[in-house]
Write the structure tokens for this entry.
Amino acid sequence: MSENMLEIDGLTHSYGDHTVLEKMSLRVPRGELVSIVGPSGCGKSTLLRCIAGLVRPTGGRVVLDGTAIDGVPDELAVVFQDYSRSLLPWLTVRDNVALPLRRRGGSRAERRAAAEEALTSVGLDGAGRKYPWQLSGGMQQRVSIARALAYRPSLLLMDEPFGSVDAQTREDLEDLVLRVHRDEGMTILLVTHDIDESVYVGDRVVVLGRDPGGVRAELPVHLPAPRDQTTTRAHPDFVSLRTEVSTLVRGAAAPTKTVVHE
């Protein structure tokens, strides 16, 4: 079994004459949480769609857990930014969480039990009989995360998952992802526009360039554990790294590529 959960080799994708990603390569070891940042239009969401099997790349390949992706893999789950469109309003919260579990069989009672367990893990114990429209935006995004957790994916993709919630809720959800990562040991790729967030949650920050998109830098994150919204963000290493990431994203004094696996 390879130590890498995800291997991307020479990934290229074009929309017509416009090349969004060109010969991109990346390795993601099992159990790592990787933050992906970059300027608008650098192909972050396209990258996630190629990994998820939602877009067939123009060239290169994506390998998940030793198998080349050709279509949507069963071992993968995605949490999108627009939680309101990803939840079915006519289903209860519990049934929304349990819905993807039909792909894996089991009785209805087993699926509902797994859904309730996942809801409890994200702090929504007792909310299973409510409907999505009865919950706040932050609670609805917790439901989306619970649905992904209940599915027990090998790889969790998160595409700007906290971009539509207020600042306090965003911090709460960041801490939730850190706890899930710690408790479940799940491999996670999180795309974000928020540089502070990328450093706060990540084991490693991958910075993409654009025109065309590709890996510009890979920066390991070495911050004291457990991380805390107040003390971690005030730590000198946090301040230094978020400055470096910001500089890279803005394109000033950036190296071609820095690859570090420690």
